[in-house]
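Following up on my earlier message about magnesium ion. Here are the inputs again, as you asked, copied directly from the submission form:
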Amino acid sequence: MDDAGHVLQVRRLRKSFESDAAPVRALRRVDLTVGAGEFVALTGPSGCGKSTLLNLVAGLDVPSDGEIVLDGVPLADLDESARARLRRRAVGMVFQFFNLLDDLSALENVALAVAIAGAPRRAAELRARSLLDLLGLTARAAELPGVLSGGERQRLAIARALANDPTLLLADEPTGALDSAGGFEVLELLRRLHGAGQTILLVTHDDDVAAAAQRTVAMQDGRVLAEAPA
Ligand code: ADP
Ligand code: MG
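Thanks, got it. Here's what our run produced:
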């Protein structure tokens, strides 16, 4: 967090993708601030630039122009390996299709992420068990992801995203592959994590999903349209 209490500051952000025809201007000038402890939903129709923005914030790609300050650190000051280190320390990310390792048990999926975040093996397993506990998955620890329900899989992916105790939890359409019960389960969980102090930036094209957040930021055609409390 920086002096102003902001976990994330995005200023005049632009991102274009080169293509054979004209470049695709995915982000045209985005400003966004997320304060410590906030739960913000970024909404807008498919193709408006939401995932592009999230990937830039996570340091997975670099902007064409503009500035991202994450956890007080301007990303532009970092080379690729320093960006990866900041990401491992400060960011947790959840995807629509879970991205779990199918050959590892629920516990191993989380323990691996804790180990990658720097914990020794024994400590990693203990922390993984406490994360499964927190997310109500203790009874599923030994199962492979393939036998879990959709909602359980996404809860597991969230447990993994929390492995490094991230400053900012990013979620890109986390309910997009779930039925309504599974989606509800995941949104309740995100609300509970927010209640416990977790800062969350959620991306969704679904206004009902966005309503779970504290504040909504609407995007269209690579721009932020308006901000409103949810
Ligand atoms: P959203 O997540 O809101 O659906 P995206 O951020 O995925 O939107 O995409 C925004 C625009 O950028 C779209 O026109 C998309 O086709 C384009 N785009 C996204 N990623 C790439 C890429 N890697 N190369 C070229 N175009 C891309
Ligand atoms: Mg997207």
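One observation from looking it over: The helical segments are 50-57, 80-90, 106-116, 121-134, 150-161, 180-195, 207-210. Hope that helps, and feel free to reply on this thread.
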